[in-house]
């Protein structure tokens, strides 16, 4: 009934890939992204052929880690009113760089232009020379309601190209529908296990030792998804590793995070057994409000999706 294009956590890739992805949904000749710089000619990149999906229902998911090529795709879809963008504001990274080789074999990359969405919005967030810390703090402040409202009020307004909806510039892509991050299940204790690399180290060792037995028990993802849950013994091994590395066991914090830990371990096991897509097939239905919202929009498109694109 529709497609969810999940660009959350996607820091980007090659420009050609972004153009190809966006072009899948747009008609021939549609501008996908343009570049403009002080000392380089302006140029536009267009869809070269009609996309294979020009009318299907489409939701694009983005978050604060969506950057660069991901923002090109999301911006093109939004500016052409082709799909509904859901999630949290993207990072705001859209620079064109030229690499110059030096005599010692090293190289330096010089920013020569910025990427613009089809409506003219600059993807790159403003950066004042020497204020790196302020640049990243501004990114974090976007997730505070009061600060975000202030930023939105000051952001330049643009019009989409098909229906003339208002969208905002100022760097990054702002979703049509904002869905806050789900912090349920996160505790200081679990956060400490993650920050010290204990979860990552445990998962690697655990899956190296469990892969063969899990493969014998579950021949397909469907069987695995329906039948497997990490055992208490697995979680005890994780917390024991934490103790050995100086993270004292916190019963209250563990109780808060236990369902999340089980689900994430299950998703990581699915990834190891059945590929990257299997990870998201476990995580998204169970622990992603943005994904749930996207599904709801597709299922009730006439009331929840179409009115966003044609207000």
Fold and architecture overview:
With 311 residues, the protein is an alpha/beta fold. It has two domains: 3-180 and 288-309, 2-enoyl-CoA Hydratase, Chain A, domain 1; 188-287, no CATH class. It is 46% helix and 15% strand. The protein is built from 13 helices and ten strands. It has helices at residues 15-23, 69-79, 132-141, 145-154, 188-195, 198-217, 221-227, 232-244, 251-274, 276-287, 289-299, 301-304, 306-309, and strands at residues 3-6, 31-36, 43-46, 58-62, 84-87, 95-101, 107-116, 157-159, 166-168, 177-178. The strands form three sheets. It has a four-stranded parallel sheet with strand order 1-4-5-10, with helices on both faces. It has a four-stranded antiparallel sheet with strand order 3-2-7-6. Helix 6 crosses helix 9 and helix 9 (251-274) runs antiparallel to helix 10. The chain is globular. The two termini are 22 Å apart. The mean pLDDT is 90.
């Amino acid at each position: 009934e529709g497609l969810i294009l999940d660009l959350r956590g996607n820091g980007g890739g090659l420009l050609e890939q972004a153009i190809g992805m966006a072009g899948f949904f747009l008609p021939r000749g549609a501008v996908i992204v343009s570049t403009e710089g002080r000392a380089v000619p302006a140029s536009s990149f267009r869809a070269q052929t009609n996309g294979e999906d020009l009318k299907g229902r489409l939701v694009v998911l983005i978050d604060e880690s969506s950057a660069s090529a991901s923002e090109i795709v999301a911006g093109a879809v939004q500016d052409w009113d082709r799909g509904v963008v859901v999630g949290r504001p993207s990072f705001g990274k859209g620079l064109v760089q030229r690499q110059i080789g030096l005599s010692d074999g090293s190289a330096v990359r010089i920013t020569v232009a910025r990427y613009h969405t089809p409506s003219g919005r600059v993807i790159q967030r403003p950066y004042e020379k020497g204020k790196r810390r302020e640049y990243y703090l501004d990114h974090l402040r976007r997730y505070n309601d009061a600060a975000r409202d202030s930023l939105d009020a000051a952001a330049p307004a643009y019009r989409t190209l098909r229906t003339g909806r208002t969208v905002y510039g100022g760097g990054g892509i702002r979703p049509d529908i904002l869905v806050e991050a789900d912090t349920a299940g996160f505790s200081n204790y679990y956060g400490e296990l993650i920050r010290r690399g204990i979860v990552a180290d445990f998962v690697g060792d655990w899956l190296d030792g469990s892969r063969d037995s899990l493969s014998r028990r579950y021949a397909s993802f469907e069987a695995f998804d329906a039948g497997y849950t990490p055992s208490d013994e697995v979680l005890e091994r994780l917390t024991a590793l934490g103790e050995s590395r100086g993270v004292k066991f916190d019963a209250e914090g563990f109780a808060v995070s236990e369902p999340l830990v089980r689900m994430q371990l299950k998703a990581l096991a699915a990834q190891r057994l059945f590929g990257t897509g299997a990870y998201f097939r476990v995580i998204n239905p169970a622990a992603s409000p943005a994904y749930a919202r996207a599904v709801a929009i597709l299922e009730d498109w006439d009331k929840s999706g179409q009115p966003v694109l044609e207000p």
